[in-house]
Amino acid sequence: IACKAGDDERFPGKSLGDVFGADWPAQPDASSPDSRSGVAVLEHGPIRWPRGLDPQDSFTVVAVLVEAGGKPLRAEILCATRAGFDKAVRNHAMADTYSPAVIDGKSVTSVIVQVVSVRAIKRQSAPKPLRRF
Predict the structure, then answer these.
(1) pLDDT digits (tens, 9 = 90+) for 91-120
(2) Whole-model pTM?
(3) Which residues touch 40 (CB under 8 Å, ≥6 apart)?
(4) Alpha-carbon distances, residue 63 vs 15, 50, 116, 129 (angstroms)
């Protein structure tokens, strides 16, 4: 795993296999490169801005272990441009809907790595109503 210079790296010098440890899937060899497809995100879950965190754009890289049925099993933050979003991004990744990886027509447990971009939007407060006496 290699993060961009300046990013907060959660597992320096580690591979995805090291990150997921005993949960890392042993996959069969594909009969050809064309008979293999990776995990895909079908629908993104909600993401909630962490309470008390100031508005700044953020990029977080998350690896999600997805079982053969498409259910997310575990999400690990790999890199982040700022602190404070780990729980929100992890919850977001676990709420996503996935299609599993397929090797030779058979669904297998695999990992997908995603970049979650959160843009800070300053909320404009509604104008206060005029008080009439």
Answers:
(1) 999 999 999 999 999 999 999 999 998 877
(2) 0.84
(3) 98, 99, 112
(4) 11, 20, 11, 47
Helix (H, G, I), strand (E, B) or coil at 111: strand
Q: Work out the number of other CB atoms within 10 angstroms of the CB of residue 55.
A: 12
Give the separation between CA 68 and CA 30, rounded to whole angstroms. Answer: 16
Distance CA 130, CA 133 (A): 10
Structure tokens at 100: 């599993």
**CA dist 7 to 73, 81, 88, 119, Å?**
26, 5, 18, 17
Per DSSP, the three-state class of 119 is coil
3-state secondary structure 28-83: CCCCCHHHEECCEEEECCCCCCCCCCCCCCEEEEEEEEECCCCCEEEEEEEEECCC
Q: Which two tokens stand for residue 31?
A: 């009969």
Helices (H) and strands (E) counted in the chain, each on its own, are 2, 9
Quickly tell me which residue has 């996959």 as its tokens. Answer: 27
